[in-house]
Inverse folding.
């Protein structure tokens, strides 16, 4: 027989034990760690009137001599083909004022280009201080009748430059503003443009054209589209590291753009056309600037500075004197060569 007292005691003890146990703790709400705040760095980009955007419109067809070109937004493409793999390009830079002697230099350059059967002329910056000077110099070059691409340097004001080029190209359809035409796809060569200058302290005009690292980086997607080995056209040279370099100034330092040099190296751009450093002109080097390339030699890597085109006497780093220089660059397959056309300094006649 069950002891009723024993059962009551056990039930009482059990109830007492249940009352003494604390309730299970409620789970604490999960608190997510704060997300790191991303710093937004302003992307520096030059004015579109200086470094034009990459566009696909508008489209128009341009007939220049016996050849047909299509201008589609920021890309100029040669539609006429030929059976060879060669293209000859004339390069003029630093024409400056439209003085009689400078205009005479242009005429001599054009006569030489005609003899060399140049198919395209690049006017690589510093074409004048004013709208009138730029227009007068450019009209002279446009008379060549071949395609002419002109790019802004560190001397011109944006508005003066663009207005002058627009006025000339309205009458001469062979003239193209390389601030806006950023890619040229010719039959046997291809070009990308980097207008302006990277260092604002070198600009002659408050409203000049400064480009930034981001503008250089924006060229990268176009490299993948290339059908031929690429040439970058820019008024200022890349940063090099030698007395032989295209950016070596008379004071003994190298003043080119480090960002442009990095882009050329990383993207393996084989060719370049530069100017601005007058005393370092009239020659070509490899990308490092250490190794000079002999004129007339076909190589797979060629960076050219044609030298100053104006008639003002310049003492070059070599010790030679310039009163006007230009260059002819010849592309053949995956190689290129160059030759410099030097005007002879006039010697005063003795009385």
């Amino acid at each position: 027989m069950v002891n009723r007292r024993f059962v009551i005691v056990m039930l009482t003890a059990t109830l007492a034990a249940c009352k003494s146990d604390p309730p299970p703790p409620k789970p604490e709400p999960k608190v997510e760690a704060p997300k790191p705040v991303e710093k937004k760095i302003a992307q520096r980009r030059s004015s579109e009137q200086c470094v034009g955007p990459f566009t696909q419109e508008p489209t128009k067809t341009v007939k220049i001599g016996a050849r047909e070109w299509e201008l589609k937004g920021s890309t100029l493409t040669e539609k006429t083909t030929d059976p060879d793999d060669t293209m000859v390009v004339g390069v003029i830079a630093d024409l400056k004022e439209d003085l009689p002697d400078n205009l005479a230099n242009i005429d001599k350059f054009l006569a030489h280009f005609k003899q060399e059967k140049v198919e395209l002329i690049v006017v690589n910056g510093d074409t004048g201080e004013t709208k009138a000077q730029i227009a007068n110099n450019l009209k002279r070059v446009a008379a060549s009748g071949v395609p002419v691409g002109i790019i802004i340097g560190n001397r011109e004001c944006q508005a003066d430059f663009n207005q002058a080029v627009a006025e000339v190209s309205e009458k001469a359809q062979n003239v193209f503003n390389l601030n806006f035409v950023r890619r040229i796809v010719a039959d046997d060569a291809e070009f990308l443009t980097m207008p302006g200058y990277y260092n604002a302290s070198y600009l002659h005009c408050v409203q000049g054209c400064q480009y930034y690292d981001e503008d250089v980086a924006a060229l990268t997607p176009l490299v993948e589209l290339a059908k031929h080995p690429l040439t970058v056209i820019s008024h200022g040279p890349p940063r090099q590291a030698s007395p032989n370099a295209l950016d070596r100034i008379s004071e003994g330092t190298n003043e080119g753009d480090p960002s442009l040099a990095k882009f050329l190296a990383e993207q393996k751009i084989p060719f370049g056309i530069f100017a601005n450093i007058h005393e370092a002109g009239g020659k070509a080097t490899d990308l490092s600037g250490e190794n000079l390339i002999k004129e007339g030699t076909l190589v797979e890597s060629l960076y050219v500075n044609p030298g100053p085109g104006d008639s003002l006497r310049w003492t070059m780093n070599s010790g030679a004197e310039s009163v006007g220089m230009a260059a002819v660059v010849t592309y053949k397959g995956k190689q290129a060569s160059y030759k410099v056309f030097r005007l002879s300094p006039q010697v005063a006649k003795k009385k």
Observations:
- The chain has seven helices and 17 strands.
- The chain has one domain: 79-342.
- The radius of gyration is 32 Å.
